[in-house]
Each structure stands twice: as structure tokens, then as C-alpha cells.
Amino acid sequence: MSARDPIADLRRIAFLLERANEATYRVRAFRSAAKALAGLPAAEVAERAGNGTLTELAGVGDVTARCVAESLAGEKPVYLRRLVATEGSDLDAEATALRAALRGDCHTHSDWSDGGSPIEEMALAAVELGHEYVVLTDHSPRLTVARGLTAERLRRQLDHVAQVNAALPEGFRILTGIEVDILADGSLDQDDELLARLDVVVGSVHSGLKDERSKMTRRMLKAVANPHLDILGHVTGRMVSSRPAGVTGPGDRGHRARTRAESDFDADAVFAACAEHDTAVEINSRPERQDPPKRLIRRALEAGCRFAINTDAHAPGQLDWQRFGCERAALCGVPADWVVNTWSAEQLVEWTHART
Ligand SMILES: [Zn+2]
Ligand SMILES: [Zn+2]
């Protein structure tokens, strides 16, 4: 067998680890090794691989040295083969298929709360994306920084949505909803009568994100057990990056980005409760959230939870962010039929109402 290019193999591994959003130190090991080898004549690399002295080079460890030896022997490194096998060599195709299976979006905001655009514009953008429905989930009263809707304003919004729906193209509809705050005691920040009336209820924690573990767990367990709650929004509350490039304007008020750690709670207990009460776990597509992290998506999947792949869009262009959530879901092997927004609007509403 003829030798492969060991530097190209190391870089490919680093790329696949990055794409899978794996820990930075793992990625850096392969990038550093590639860099160390790139500065040496090929003959020296081969000689060192032969006599086992690659690890004497700064930046080359046991794992990376083994990869180099395998490449030079003409074999695809085991590490690379394993990555390709577990990540799926056809990842893009899987994510694309999942995105194509989505028929709507269950978490969006308008200028009635902290979104930047009127309901009509959000709906028309969703139509253009090929959606059959979009759930309007403006904030609840106590999130005053995001102009959360009082019961009175929400009632007016329901009337308004009915009017807008009448004027939208056939085959598309705005479903009514809310992103209701999960309060400190685990109760939901809106009247029960209204929550029961809405098509879809997303519930999220927006305050006290640093609460200690047992308190946060109790709070989330109580919310998940509430029959009005259909989808648990951005589960950990983390912010992985600052505001993404190109995202400006009022559309992000209330979601203004800064880095923030995951809140601390017993994820296995919360996911077990989601599975028991048939509450879906949101895969939030916002680039600065990427919430939940993949290790938790995998645990929710193992617990038997359903999912909703949502954009949490605050502006029409952000409705196209679902592909980010789909990429992460595909990496974790989330099957399309466990994602509630691959269903039709009728099936979705049948599910939420069966739960209420
Ligand atoms: Zn939120
Ligand atoms: Zn939101």
C-alpha cells in the first residue's frame, strides 16, 4: 500500500472533531501535530515514525503519532475511520434530510414582544421557506425586558392572529402559542385558561439561571409535569458565543448574547420526566445558544424524549436557522419521527391538546 499524507489525515480528524463540536483540547492535539510535522522534511517524519521517535517532537503525542504511523503505512488511521463511522460520513445528507422533514417551527417571536418584525412578516417568511405552519411564541408577562404579553395583550394577539390567518395562503397557518416563563417555583407565568387555549406552549427558564442544582431540578421537574407545557425551551440556558456575525438590530433584544454557563440540574431526572409526561425537549438552533449541548441531546434521546427543532427566531431571516439545529440533531442520531415539528399542524395540535 502506498503511503497516505499523514498531515492531511491529522487535519481531517481535527475538522471532523470541530464539526462535531468536540472539546477544543482534542481538536488542538491534532492541529498541533499537523503543524509540527508540516515543518519537517518528509524523510525525517518517515524515519521518526519508523524508529518510534515522533513523540519526541513538541506537539506530537501517542495518539497522533499512531495516526501518522498508520497513514505512512498506507492505512486510513483507526481514529479517522472511527470518527467517520460514528459521525456518519454522509452527515450533510442526514442533516439535510432532517431539515427537509420539518414542516414548521414551534418557537418564534414577533414585535409584540422582543422580536423585530410584525407577525405578518414572520408568517410570510415562513411560507417562503416552505413551512406549513409557524407557532408564534411571544414572551409572558414577567419577562418585562422582552415586553412579555399580559393576559389581556395575549387575548388581543389571538384575535389578531385569527385575522392574519384568514389572509394567508391556503395550506399555511400561524399556530397560537407562548414562550412562557418557568417561574422560580416551577409554575408557569400565564393564566391556565389561556395556556389551555393556545395551540402550543413552550416553557423556558429565563431567570435565576445560577440557582443551585436541587432547586433548579425541582423547578424544571414541576414545569415538565404541568400538562399545559408541551415543549421545554433552551434547556440549559447556556450562551456559547457572543451575538453571531451579521445579527444586529432590535430582533435580538432580550436574547442579547454574552457567554453564559449551562445551568446546573439533574438532566437525567428532567429527561426521564419529559419522557414520562410526553413533554418534548427543544433543540434550539440559535448559533449563540446551541442548546442543549450534544451530550445532553444524546441523553434525552436515550431517555426516550421527543424533540422539537426550533429557531427561536426574532427576525424573519432567522427562521432559516433550523439547519443548525438539524446538524446537531443528526450528529446525535435523532430520528425524524421523534421530532414533533416533522408532523402536520393537525397532528401537532392533536398531540398538544391530548396532553392538556
Ligand atoms: Zn427564551
Ligand atoms: Zn424565545
Topology (SSEs and partners):
Blueprint: H1 6-19, H2 24-38, H3 42-51, H4 62-72, H5 78-87, H6 91-101, E1 104-108, H7 119-128, E2 133-136, H8 151-167, E3 173-181, H9 192-197, E4 200-204, H10 213-225, E5 231-232, H11 267-277, E6 280-284, H12 294-303, E7 307-310, H13 322-331, H14 345-355
Explain this structure to me?
- With 356 residues, this protein is an alpha/beta fold.
- The protein is 45% helix and 10% strand.
- It is built from 14 helices and 7 strands.
- The protein has helices at 6-19, 24-38, 42-51, 62-72, 78-87, 91-101, 119-128, 151-167, 192-197, 213-225, 267-277, 294-303, 322-331, 345-355; strands spanning 104-108, 133-136, 173-181, 200-204, 231-232, 280-284, 307-310.
- Strands 1-2-3-4-5-6-7 form a 7-stranded parallel β-sheet.
- Strand 1, helix 7 (119-128) and strand 2 form a beta-alpha-beta unit.
- Helix 1 runs parallel beside helix 5, helix 10 packs parallel to helix 11 (267-277) and helix 11 crosses helix 12.
- The protein is elongated, with a radius of gyration of 23 Å.
- The termini are far apart.
- One zinc ion binds at residues 179, 204, 206, 233-234.
- One zinc ion binds at residues 107, 109, 179, 312.
The percentage helix is: 40-55%
Strand content: 5-15%
Number-wise, the strands total 7
| Measured distance between first and last alpha carbons | 64 Å
Summed over residues and divided by their number, the pLDDT gives a mean of: 91
Outline the biggest β-sheet: 7 strands, parallel
Low-confidence parts = 244-257
Q: Could you say which small molecules are bound to this protein?
A: zinc ion
Radius of gyration: 23 Å
Strand order of the largest sheet: 1-2-3-4-5-6-7
Structural class: alpha/beta
> Helices and strands, in N-to-C order?
HHHHHHEHEHEHEHEHEHEHH
Count up the helices: 14
Structural shape: elongated
